[in-house]
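Reading a protein record of the kind used here takes only a little practice. The integers have meaning only within a learned vocabulary of local backbone shapes. With that in mind, consider the following protein and its fold in token form:
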Amino acid sequence: MPTIQILGTGCPKCNKLQENAEAAAEELGIEYELEKVTDVNEISEYGVMMTPALAVDGDVKVAGKVADPDEIKDYLS
């Protein structure tokens, strides 16, 4: 079961990225764990300088933009 991390402070773009990630996982029919990382110091530990960012199992896939569900499905499959 993958862990999807949304890295960001909770801005509207961060929330949209979370919605897209949840939609992608549901379309794939996979179980997942969702983790929101809002602490700036913790976000920087991922090497992310621009939010929102998406990580899967701790591996950053997208930073500084809102990925669409189809793009996220590629990272989850």
